[in-house]
Design brief:
3-stranded mixed β-sheet, 6 helices, 26% helix, 7-stranded mixed β-sheet, alpha/beta
Length: 201
């Protein structure tokens, strides 16, 4: 059994929920805070939370540059909500001092769907996820203003892009880890598993 080890960046945000969802999707899940822990995983989830806080803590813990380097060479990464913002090559309205990891050629607008009290749930058809639509939980969620030629749009909600993939990097505006539906995490685990499988000669 090709069981990948997938980390969750455990600096801030809904780390526990992602660990549970990854384990349910047949991965070995573990928290990651430091460069030496990052070096031991086959893939990484960037959780929801506060994107500015996560980026500043990533720098403080010395994990930002190693993470950027691994993403550049193909580390599979999945970001939800704040994680989507961190994976954008450009933020439309960044806060002062906010950095991104990059990895997806997209422009993201922070808090695009409204404030905390405007959070909502919606059924989202996600390309690559079989069966019924995914129940998306949108909490101060971003949306994607535009994508470059290398990025594939996987889902939209009310005309706005809410799920994108580029190579080994996946991002959603919404939080599938909060619903008990682990199909998006299974999609990511499959991406990591495929990345670990040696190509046939």
């Amino acid at each position: 059994m090709n069981t990948p080890v997938i980390g969750v960046l455990a600096l801030q945000g809904d780390v526990r929920e992602h660990l549970i969802a990854l384990a349910a999707a047949d991965a070995v899940a573990r928290p990651v805070r430091r460069p030496e822990e990052l070096a031991e995983v086959d893939g990484l989830v960037l959780p929801g939370g506060e994107s500015t806080t996560i980026s500043k803590l990533a720098v403080l813990f010395g994990v930002m540059e190693p993470l950027r380097a691994r993403v550049r060479v193909g580390l599979p990464v999945y970001g939800t909500c704040a994680g989507m913002i961190l994976l954008a090559d450009k933020i439309l309205d960044p806060r002062s001092g906010q950095e991104t990891i990059g990895g997806i050629d997209m422009i993201v607008r922070r808090n695009a769907f409204g404030r905390q009290n405007e959070s909502f749930e919606a059924a989202v058809d996600v390309r690559g996820v079989a069966g019924d639509p995914v129940e998306g939980v949108f909490i101060r969620a971003p949306w994607v203003e535009s994508v470059g030629a290398g990025a594939e749009v996987l889902a939209e909600h009310e005309g706005h892009i809410v799920a994108v993939r580029q190579g080994n990097v996946l991002a959603t505006s919404f939080h599938p880890e909060l619903t008990g539906d682990h199909r998006v995490h299974s999609l990511f685990v499959d991406m990591v598993r495929a990345d670990r499988t040696p190509e046939s000669l």
